[in-house]
Design brief:
The protein is an alpha+beta fold and about 200 residues long. It has a single domain, classed as OB fold (Dihydrolipoamide Acetyltransferase, E2P), CATH 2.40.50. The chain has five helices and seven strands; from the N terminus they run H-E-E-E-E-H-E-E-H-E-H-H. Strand 1 and strand 2 form a beta hairpin. The longest helix is centred in the C-terminal third of the chain and has 33 residues, at about 160-195. The N and C termini lie far apart (about 55 Å). Bound molecules: calcium ion (2 copies). One calcium ion binds next to strand 5.
Length: about 200
């Protein structure tokens, strides 16, 4: 038990000591659709010029909310994001799209800004509610979202000894698998709700 406590403490210290995409952080006040939301900003770099910013998830495309698929995508994004702490990696090339929305990768974080999951952009695609649409004029490459070697979550684990790192990876994998199972159940319920089986 003492060994486990030490491992957990090491993990927490490591997570606290390493960087994260934190060009802006805050909490989500509104979900507009499956790929767009409003963030009340707690802190941000010089590109943030208002208390609330509209965020467009980079390089993904969710259906519009005037169709059933779009409503389901918004419902999923709401479950994932509403009232949650989020940090943003803002596109360094264009910053905003033609509608003034920040082009970003978004990450769910704890209250201290430490990343808890892969980027939300990827999670929405994994759910089947959106597809990858890779705009080449931004800094992001969706191919890297599924590579653990290039993940900020991975960066947060950098510098940890091999044994501890293995323990952390297994723990995080368990959490992600749980999250995936939970999401699958939510999606199944949503599909039943949208298209109930005829009696
Ligand atoms: Ca950036
Ligand atoms: Ca891109």
């Amino acid at each position: 038990m003492r060994m486990l406590s030490a491992l957990v403490m090491l993990a927490l210290l490591s997570l606290a000591a390493n960087g994260a995409p934190d060009e802006a952080c805050g909490h989500v006040s509104r979900v507009v659709d499956g790929d767009t939301f409003d963030l009340i900003v707690d802190k941000g770099d010089s590109r943030i010029d208002s208390a609330v910013v509209r965020v467009r998830l980079a390089d993904v495309d969710a259906p519009e909310v005037d169709c059933e698929e779009g409503k389901a995508a918004k419902e999923l994004a709401t479950i994932l994001l509403l009232d949650r702490s989020v940090c943003l990696d803002i596109d360094d090339f264009n910053v905003r799209d033609k509608y003034g929305r920040l082009i970003c990768l978004a990450y769910l974080t704890d209250r201290n800004g430490q990343i808890l999951t892969p980027c939300v952009n990827r999670m929405i695609v994994d759910s089947g509610m959106a597809t990858v649409k890779d705009f080449k004029d931004n800094e992001f490459d969706p191919d890297k979202w599924w590579s653990t070697a290039d993940s900020p979550l991975n960066d947060a684990l950098g510098g940890v000894g091999g044994e501890v790192e293995g323990f952390l990876r297994r723990m995080l994998l368990d959490i992600l698998n749980e999250l995936q199972r939970w999401l699958n159940q939510v999606l199944e319920d949503l599909r039943d709700w949208i298209a109930p089986t005829p009696a």
